[in-house]
Amino acid sequence: MVSQSIFIELKKFRLSSILFFFALLILARLTVAEEIPAYMVGAGVQPFGASLQGEPLPQLGERPTEKVFWEYPVESPKIGLKTKSLLDKLPSDSAIAVWVFFTDKGIKTNGEYKKAIEECGYQVSERSIERRKLRGKKPIFDFTDIQVKKEYLDELKNLSVKIRVVSKWLNAASVLANKNQIEEIEKLPFVRAIKKVVTFYRKEPFVFKEDFKKIYEAPEDQLKIPPKAGVLGYGQSLAQLAQIHVPELHNLGYSGKGVLITMLDTGYFLHHRAFEHILDEGRLVATWDFINGDEDVEDISDDQREHGTFTFSAVGGFVGDTLIGPAFGANFALAKTEIVLNNIEIQIEEDNWVAGIEWADDLGADVVSSSLGYNDWYTYEDMDGNTALCTKAADLAVSKGIVVVNAAGNERQNSWHYIIAPADGDSVIAVGAVDLQGHLADFSSAGPTYDGRIKPDVVACGVNTFCASPYGGYARVGGTSLSTPLVAGVCALLLEIHPEWTPHDVISALHGTASQACRPDTLKGWGVANAYSASGIDTVPHICIQPESFDFSAVHGQREIPPQTLHISNIGGGELRWQAISDADWLSLEPSSDTTLVNEPSATNLTVDITDLPAQLHQATVTISGDDTLTLPVTAKVTLIIRSTAKIAAFPNPFQDSLTVFVDKSNANDKINVSIFTVA
Questions:
Q1: Per DSSP, which regions of 78-187 are E strands?
Q2: SS3 for 138-166, per residue?
């Protein structure tokens, strides 16, 4: 069994208050206390926009008040209506998993808050602290990082309920309790709300069985190619990486080195050749099974570890001339948060997912890759970025400097249709699926979010994605849960190149350089991701225009026709010096040339002149090209319809095999018969 775990040393000062501050003055250079002011300044954030009771937290140095800080108001009713309705249908001794949310964390004075914030620095890894300083919001620790009050948990235990997960971010605990126990929990004065723990379900990925049964093993005598720039043999994984322009960065020596990626998935078959390089180099830094509460994520059952093996190998696998993931040089932490049911469906409890992403934060993860699924609890109206608990947790992770990449979902062909949580989060990178030709996968969930935001963010190969199987060979697998690790690997490459980038910088770079950056939609988002252009290393301009077609309409003899605007963007690199050319004399462009930098808007106005033009259909093409041979030109179609002032107009005249007829409806009779015939 190959699994490792890192241990976070918890340091606590046991000095009295006076001796503590005196010791800080003397030993400031010898302890980590000198780092405390950087993340203690300020008053923390209000998690999830909740209104809090009490006065605002004083700034350090101010005289504290006697009122309670950071206290949530009790919800009315405490038990959510949907949860209450479910409980009413259950026998009194039937146990279900519910979240118990607390009103506060026992903070009553400014001094207590300072002490609690100080202790946060000893409860996470040094890597987590450094990531927060580099990419997170300030202050780097806030109310959400303070531990849940122990006495509240003890009160729950006294009611003989089983505590499943404790979430400091949500200030809550999930418990397994029956109806009678939940009613007793409701009476506790420090309980703010009680809500059901949502269960997500995801169909097993689309495995192409004919490929799955065939073992795509590289020859035994083939030497593994060392991961050096310019010598990688991608084998059958080349197409899926070339589509998102990863090899260009590999050829420059980038592989995700130094970046920590946490996978939230099923079990993993770690003895596959695709993971040898990670294990041999000690880059599997932590494992944890949130289902069974141990470090073993390599289950005996192939079914249980199938999906995790697929996704892990897609992002980090390395077998020369066979399979290479975009971030094969990264460090990894593997969390088992999902259970395979009946070999056809995967079950994910929301509390385990929340526990997994908090664990990732404690470790110091830079990127989290995951996928959830459909559920029968949340509605589309809840996909607003602020309702689902997993979405709240994901956005909190981003605020602490973690890039969260989540599958958009495989729901477009069923009654749900839309993206799934936590992909609805405004800070979460939601990933859809396309095939290798860039065509949208028919299952890939659509946007927008309920509040109208564009989702998904980007897309990558999620059809016939080549990856390792838990049976020792390789498989071609489909689903947005396979396109997601490819994009997570791209994010790791970007952070290796730009370690100072925040999660929002990463999102902005992906949006601004994807294949349809200037015309995002709710099917592919901003388009197919482009790792090379997003990195800023690419110096070749790429032209993107919006819109791609124009329609003008006029009456014969009309003097003025409103112009229309063609927007031009550079989604590649360097400086784009473009020229616009029309192939029709009646269509003019102003300006006809300009210069634009990356993501800098530019435009040309299209004006038509119908003088001397007959009343009929006219068409033209506008070509936008760069002044270099590497920039590919793009075209826009222009249609101009000139109507006759007569009641009925037909063109062309004479015609051969087709005829267009226009009727002036404003003055026409209720019924007009048009006869078209030929005369011998």
A1: 95-102, 162-167, 172-178
A2: CCCCCHHHCCCCHHHHHHHHHCCCEEEEE
